[in-house]
Amino acid sequence: MKKIVLILFAALPFCHVGAQEVKLNSDGRDAQYVQTILGRSKKIVDGLKLGDEKKQQNVLNIIANRYFKLNDIYDKYKVGTDSCNAELYKHHFEFAANLANYLNDEQIEAVKDGLTYGVVPKTYQAHLEMIPTLKENEKLQILNWLKEAREFAIDAPDSKSKHGWFGKYKGRINNWLSGRGYDLVKEREAWYKRIKGN
Question: Are 135 and 123 in contact (CB under 8 A)?
Fold first, then answer.
């Protein structure tokens, strides 16, 4: 029993650290650039409807700091190089981990979608509507691939690159569905007819 109590007390400082105030890493950065990033980040935070002002500010700073970190990496390394990819990988998982101090899984998903133009839910819903006969395991595979694409897109340097990652995975999904016997041309035509009918 004493061991359990000691372990719990030892863990307390680490729990407290996770809830500390998050500082905005804006020192030495162009003021206009900082305001632009804060504006983008605020739109995402506003969509979460957190209510708690301190939590809102901390989440806002985490998202803005993520933009700053990516900008620093792309300023230092050439896009697509091993050095750049290694640095991106090194810092990739800390973003969700930092958010987890203040948000639940659903809210973290919303932040990721906010950073990637909502492509995952939009594309997933489009597939469900286009092919209403999809099996549950097929729906899950499509969603998992779209989320995988989103992880790469989150680290991409610009809008074109972000959409490029989704484009690659949409191609993979289409090839996979075709291999499973779906005629995507016919499915798409039927879908358009259903939309026009409504």
Answer: no
Distance CA 154, CA 44 (A): 14
Characterize 84-110 residue by residue with b for buried, 16 or more Cβ atoms within 10 angstroms of its Cβ, and e for exposed: beebbeeeeeebbebbebbbeeebbbb
Please state the rounded mean pLDDT for residues 157-177: 97
Contact 171, 163 (CB under 8 A): no
Phi-psi region of 24 (alpha: psi -120 to 50; beta: other; left: phi over 0): beta
Q: Computed over its alpha carbons, how large is the radius of gyration of the chain?
A: 21
Specify the pTM: 0.86
CB atoms closer than 10 angstroms to residue 60:
20
pLDDT for res 20: 83
